[in-house]
Every structure is written in C-alpha cells, then in structure tokens.
Design goal:
eight-stranded parallel beta sheet; about 325 residues; acyltransferase (chains A, B, C); 34 strands; lipid biosynthesis (chains A, B, C); 2 domains; homotrimer; N-acyltransferase activity (chains A, B, C); lipid a biosynthesis (chains A, B, C); Udp-n-acetylmuramoylalanyl-d-glutamate--2,6- Diaminopimelate Ligase, Chain: A, domain 1; alpha/beta
Amino acid sequence: MEFPQPVTAKWIAELIEADIIGDSAREATGINELHKVKSGDIVFVDHPKYYDNCLKSAATFVIINDNTVTKPEDKVLLYCDKPFDAYLKIVQHFRPFTAASSMIDPSAVIGKDTIISPGVFIGKDVVIGEGCIIYPNTTISDYTRIGNHVIIQSGTVIGSDAFYYNTRKTEPVWYRKMQSCGAVIIEDYVEIGANCTIDRGVTDATRIGQGTKMDNLVHVGHDTEIGKNCLFAAQVGIAGATKIEDGVTLWGQVGVSKTLTIGENATVLAQSGVPSSLKGGKTYFGYPAEEAGYKRRELVWVKRIPELWKKVFQED
Amino acid sequence: MEFPQPVTAKWIAELIEADIIGDSAREATGINELHKVKSGDIVFVDHPKYYDNCLKSAATFVIINDNTVTKPEDKVLLYCDKPFDAYLKIVQHFRPFTAASSMIDPSAVIGKDTIISPGVFIGKDVVIGEGCIIYPNTTISDYTRIGNHVIIQSGTVIGSDAFYYNTRKTEPVWYRKMQSCGAVIIEDYVEIGANCTIDRGVTDATRIGQGTKMDNLVHVGHDTEIGKNCLFAAQVGIAGATKIEDGVTLWGQVGVSKTLTIGENATVLAQSGVPSSLKGGKTYFGYPAEEAGYKRRELVWVKRIPELWKKVFQED
Amino acid sequence: MEFPQPVTAKWIAELIEADIIGDSAREATGINELHKVKSGDIVFVDHPKYYDNCLKSAATFVIINDNTVTKPEDKVLLYCDKPFDAYLKIVQHFRPFTAASSMIDPSAVIGKDTIISPGVFIGKDVVIGEGCIIYPNTTISDYTRIGNHVIIQSGTVIGSDAFYYNTRKTEPVWYRKMQSCGAVIIEDYVEIGANCTIDRGVTDATRIGQGTKMDNLVHVGHDTEIGKNCLFAAQVGIAGATKIEDGVTLWGQVGVSKTLTIGENATVLAQSGVPSSLKGGKTYFGYPAEEAGYKRRELVWVKRIPELWKKVFQED
C-alpha cells in the first residue's frame, strides 16, 4: 500500500510508539509485506527467523522487536515490542475499515456503457471502466480497479481478505488476521465466471491480466499475478503470491500452490496439483504435476506391475 | 435458440450482410452451435478445420467465410467474411442483452405457493412452477425454466454464461466470448445446494432432470444434460455438453470432462476424474476413473513395488 | 432439536397419528436423527436394516413402522405406517418453514460493534455476538448462533440445508428431503472466507470451534464438528457428521468423507482425500490419505517401475 503522501520516520514512530534507530527525518512512502516490499516502504518483522530477510530486503524501514540487531547502513529501524500490532495500527490509520452504508458507495467511479446489475455491492474507492457488465449479486470490495469491457458473472466476490495470519500457538487463539490493505486490479477484456473469489493483496495488489477468462467457482489468492490471455476452467484454485504468466491454461479443478511461477503458455490438465514452479510452453498433468507425456506413461507402467510380479515370483 | 417466428434466408443475409448461395426464400427457425444443431437451424463456421462437420450437420443454413466450398444440395450457405460476428449479430437481434432494472423482472411468472426469498434476482422471461423455495441471494438468469417443488439454496447462480470462446491467438485478446443465448431448464422436485453454478446453454438448454439433488458448490457447464434422480455431492464439477443419464451418483469433488456420457445408475467415487464416457450400472474411482474394484487392486499393487524391488535386485 | 417445552407421548401420537406402545405420559424433550440422539429424544426408523440401531440408541421414543418388534424396557414406541412423514410433521410443527419478508428478520439479536454489511440476509432466531464483521451479500439462515469477533466474508452461506435424503428407488422421485431443523454454531474469533457454505445440522448443530479460520469456497457438511484453531485452505470440502479435532490444518482442495474423525493437530496436504479416520499429530497426503513420508516414498517407487521392468525382462 502506498501512503497518500510520504510520512517521516518520526511520525510513524509516534503512531506506533516505537524507538527510532537511524534517521528520524527519512520519509516512508508505503507499507508492504516481505513479498512485495520496495524502497521507501515500511516492513515489519516479529520473529528472529525472518529478521535477516527483512533487514536485507528492499524496504527502507523495518519495524522490529529486537533493538540489538545491527542496523543496515541504508535503513531505519523502528523498535517496538509488538511489530504485528504496529503494522495493524498503520494499516488502520491509512485504510480504516468502515461500515458500508449503501450497496454502491458514492465514491465509486463507473465508466460509460457499464452495466451494474441489481444486488451488486460496490465498496469505497472503486473504479470500473467502460463497457463492463457486472452481473447480479456480485461483491466488488474497497479499492478494486476494473478496466474496460470486463464481464463479471453473478455471485462473484472481488477483493475478499487475504487468508494470511500471524501464528502464535502459545495463545488461546492461534491465528491473528494480517489485516489486508491491498487491492485487486483487473485489466481490460477480462471475464470472471459465477461465484468466483479473488482475494485482495495483503498490502499490494492481486492482478489479472488483459483478456484472461475464468470459469465459475475459481479461487485466486492474495497478491497473485495472472498474465494476459490465460484460461482457467471451473473450480481452479490458486494460492497466494503466485505468478501465472501470459497464455497459461489451467483445466478444471487444478490446484496451484503459493509463491511459485507457471511459465508462459503452459497448460495444466484437469485435477492436477502444482506444488512448485513449472516451465512455460509445456503440458502438465497429475500430482505433483509433471510433463503429461511422462505422466501418462507412468500410468501405463503402474498397470504392468502385476505382469512384473508374475514374472518375478513365478521364477521361484 | 428458436426464433419467435421463422425468418427467410434473405432476411438473415441482410441482417449479417452475407451473400446467399442457395434458396433465399427458405425459412430458418433458429440458430444453434454445432453440438445442438437441427434441421431448420442456422450454424456458423469460420475455420476450415470445422467446415466439413458443419456442412454435413443437420443445420439447414451455414454461415461460412469461404464461398468456394461445394454447397450441399439440401442446404443454404450464407457467405461473409466474419461468421463469428454474424452469429453475434443474430443473437443480439433476437436475445439482446438488456440491463435489469429490478431484482425481479416484471415478466417473471411465479407459480402458486412458491417462495421467493429476499435478495433473489430473477431475470427476464423466467418461469418458476408451484411449491418451490428459492432461498436468499440466489440469481436466476434470463430465460430460465423451473418446474414444480424445486428447492434452490442460497447464493446459487442459475444461468451464468457458457465458458465458450472463439480463439484467435494472433489478436491481442485471444478469446472472444461466444455470446450465450440458451437457457437452463430445471424439472420437478430438483434440489440444488448453496453457491452452485449452473451455466446456461450456448444456444440450446442445460437440463436437470426430475428429482435430481445437488449439494453445495456444484458446477454444471453449458448444454449439459442431467437425467432424473441423480445425486451430486458437494464441489462436483461437470464441464459443458456432457450427458449424465438417470440415477447417476457422483460423490464429492468429482470432475467430469466435456461432451461425454455417464451411463444410467453409474456411481463415481469421491475426487475421481472422468475424462471419457463411462458405462452405466458400475462404480468407478480414480483418475482416469476406472472400475472401482480394479482401481483398488491397483493401489495395492503399487504398495508391492518395494517387495518386487527387493526380490529382483537381491538376486544380483 | 430441543422442543421449547417437553411434550407427552400421547400428544406426539395424536400429532402423527401413531399407536403408543409403552407409557403414554412419558415426556419427550426433542427429536434427533440417529447420529445425534440422546435420552429424552424421539428418533424415527422406517427400514428393518436400521431397527436395531434405533432400538438400542439413547433415544427414549422410537417412531417405527413395525408393531411386532420387541419394545426395549426403557423406551416408548410410536407405531405408524410412515415414520418419515411423522418426522416431517413433528419438525414442521416445531420449526415451520416460513417465508422471510425482509433481509434482516426483526428477531435477530446483534451484538455491540458488529457490522452487518449491505445485502446480508439474516433469518429468524439468529444471534450474532459483539465485534463481528459480516461482509456483503452473505446469508445467515434461521437459528444460527455466532459468537464474538467473528468475520464472515462476502457471499458465504451459513445454514444451508443438510444434503440428507430418504431413499426409495421404487418411487418416481427417489430421494425425499430429510427436512433440516438443526442449526450452525460458530464460536468466537472464527473467520470464514468468501462464498463458503456451512450446512446446518439435520436435527442438531454444525459447530465451528473458537479461532478456526477458513479460506474461500470451503464446504462444511451438516452436523460436522470442527475444533478450535483449525486452518482450512480454499476449496476444502468436509462431508456430514464428521469430527475435526482442535488444531487441524487442511490444505487446499482437500476432501474429507462423512462420519469420521481427524485427530488433534493433524495436517492434511493439498488435494488429499480422507475416506476414513486419521490419528492426530501427523501429516497426511494422497488418496486415500496416508502418512506423507510414506506416500512420498511411494511416488518414488512408482518411478522405479521401468528400471525393474528392464532388469526383469532383459534377463529372459
């Protein structure tokens, strides 16, 4: 998330009651989680396991619960007891959750020749382009950006919260919600089927590239980036922070794990599971998804086990 | 789709700016895509790969972008540069998309003792029989026909558009939507769970036979025909133009591919995948789904590989 | 379901036109199906296959279509021709289905600082605690109980009917709906994603324990009990009357069958299928789900079949 205008380390430190280690006049331009962080950003870390990743990240400001770590030269540290609460406080300040009071927020910008059907909810700070059709009973959450000639079928939810939690198994409630402050960006000529769910980014954006088409009941996780001209059949599920490059086809009920990449023009056959990155231009199948020709031969090999058995044990 | 009244080849040719090869006075009664075409129908074809199928189909009229093909004796050809655009023009003429202005279109015909809950959207030209319960926040799209004593749980979408595209990978946007003008027909005593999606036919109808029951989050593709007394557990997905005969049971998360047939009284066990037709009266399992007894033995054979290995390589 | 006040066997017998075998003054406190039945309850049975289970169950009253069975000493039998219809009559009496006339029933009790977004449907006799957020276009059905600090994302349906039918294949309509009269109980700090479906209990309750978090498009069947601090990723499906103990993690697209138990702190990896109970504290994978380490080795063994084949058949 970008701040509407830069704020100083001093201002942030006062908001979250932190000690500044470094230049208190330095200006922060936004806040992001580790996967999406860039120069000017604030990032937070509350577990020694991740200290190193955060201190070496592109972030300029690190909210941290250890004031003995060595400050990298080009960074500002913000020391406090509970970095996760500090994160929530900053998000709450810049993107406070407010109750919607109408089905279509008055702030919505809706382009020419776009049809918003009955029963559609549109949150605050939403922009929808021209020539779109938003079918009945869909939900378009806060901060969503939709291009031109986009079609969204009924019952679909754009911008549900990221499934992203801070885990503390010593507490009675193990999982604390990492408040989502990101958005969903949908480019021109995208079509999304009925009863799909597209999660917003935790701090950045979930993106769907131009001309991509999705069938019904498809799930897209937070911060996932989907290229142009992809085709996802019904009930496909894609976890968070994954990258699907241009022209990828996923057939029905395919599952794709988080933080991986599927290369350009790859095809994944129905019901396959993708636990790690796949190179582009090929067809994959099975769990874990492997090249389809190889996997099909494997199915044939399995059918030959009885023959092997007979040969081996008859020779006794 | 049937036209409200027959139209001459001449009338159609003027609408789509085509040349007529054949009898210009001949009357067309409807338009359908290749899977559903019948005598009196118009069909379109824009790729040489499918010319033959269309010219040999039951259609009386073929919109085609090649005026050198040999006209079958009993047919009328409508020659134009862009048959796909011609198709869209005809559909747009007879079933124009119009924005809904209310949650329940005034054209809806709703039977005695039928309950339409709050938050339900009903499009135009919808007929719902007697003694039905339509639960809150469901969407019933244009042209849907629902019989008597049908129950539809909350959040379900009846009549979302077919996931059916015209592909041109040379264009910046590869997939162009094949405008759906078909319907969904639901017979008596059908029950559909919550947050399901039933796509309308592209040009004909998706049908759900009497007494069939579906659990939640089930997807049924366009033009699929489902028999009587079928039972589909949660998260089943069925692709387009498939035929499920009477009395078929599909357990949870089963996936069924397109344009195939599952025979009467077949049972497919949970999470199985069905890539090709299955005979009736048997129980299937796995991917690709095979007879359950055979498949279970296969799982046992796989567990015997280590023993085989030991035997074979110890003998060295 | 508990009755609002106890009723005598005589009163019930008159309602359902049954003969009483036993003490007609004995008081019934509720009605439940076999899985959930307890002392004071009525249960019904209409098939000899289940007579024994019902007669030996904890129920005090058994509605049965055979007056020749031996009455257990501590029970009252209610003899009638059609026990299933008798069940429906009792449920219909105590929990009649009535059409909702507004999006939020006036009987709803909604706690302090709870946000009910636009487009939310709330049925009758619903209680929602404090500090909850119910996102747009969700459906909260009759009798639901929601604790404090619960978040429900858009489009989710709480309390859809159980997928539970009385089967008679000799009738034209094979499956008759077992009318649901149960509820959904959601404890504090639970979060449920977008477009999920949580079925109500048939006669008792579906329960989701404190601090459990679910991603989008998750299905939970009727009467299922989910413990505290569970984590379910997107598109998980859990059938009816199953028990998921505390701290269980189910990754994306996992399917869990009915009436089984997954033990405390078990983890089931993505796309796995669980057909029978799993012990706690371990990680499982595949279909049928087995210990992940074992299953991973099995995948490796399959890849060695060609080598085995070569060795065995080259030796000929």
